[in-house]
């Protein structure tokens, strides 16, 4: 998995942030993903994968998206920058609802700039 903050140098307070996550699955010689091996589950179960962005300092969930993980996926997560400028630390979680030990977490930092100034007509400069 790789991730990238789009337009990272232009993040302004209170504006939207886009985190692009690129997922690639090691298929280990398989051609497709089948149901989960869960003999005690009452019916056939497909695995579920989730991408979550959180702020551990404030215990806030900023973005969550269920993602299909076949061979390759490119996913965008949108969330809002905080109202105040400065460096903000976030955590990206990649979690599975079917397998233990697969969850991953990655820390990243966003340098939030002051909001753009408004001109006389109310448009951002």
TrEMBL record:
The reply to whether tRNA processing figures as a keyword in the UniProt entry is no
- What keywords sit in the KW lines? Chaperone, Endoplasmic reticulum, Membrane, Transmembrane, Transmembrane helix
SUPFAM superfamilies found in the cross-reference section: E set domains
Report how it sits in the membrane.
Multi-pass membrane protein
From the Swiss-Prot or TrEMBL record, state where the protein is found. Endoplasmic reticulum; Membrane
Gene3D superfamilies per record: C2 domain
Q: Which biological process annotations from GO are given for this protein?
A: spliceosome conformational change to release U4 (or U4atac) and U1 (or U11)
Q: Which Pfam families match?
A: Sec63 (PF02889)
Q: Name one GO cellular component term.
A: membrane
For this chain, one GO molecular function annotation is:
RNA binding
**Residues covered by the SEC63 domain:** 11-108
Q: Which PANTHER family match?
A: SEC63 DOMAIN-CONTAINING (PTHR24075), U5 SMALL NUCLEAR RIBONUCLEOPROTEIN 200 KDA HELICASE (PTHR24075:SF5)
Give the protein's recorded name.
SEC63 domain-containing protein
């Amino acid at each position: 998995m790789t991730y990238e903050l789009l337009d990272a140098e232009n993040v302004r307070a209170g504006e939207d942030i886009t985190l692009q996550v690129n997922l690639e699955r090691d298929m280990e010689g398989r051609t497709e993903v089948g149901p989960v091996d869960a003999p005690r589950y009452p019916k056939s179960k497909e695995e579920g994968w989730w991408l979550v962005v959180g702020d551990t300092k404030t215990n806030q969930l900023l973005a969550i998206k269920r993602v299909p993980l076949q061979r390759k996926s490119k996913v965008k997560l949108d969330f809002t920058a905080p109202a105040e400028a400065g460096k903000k630390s976030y955590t990206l979680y990649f979690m599975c609802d079917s397998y233990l030990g697969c969850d991953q977490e990655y820390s990243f930092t966003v340098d939030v700039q002051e909001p753009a100034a408004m001109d006389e007509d109310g448009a951002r400069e």
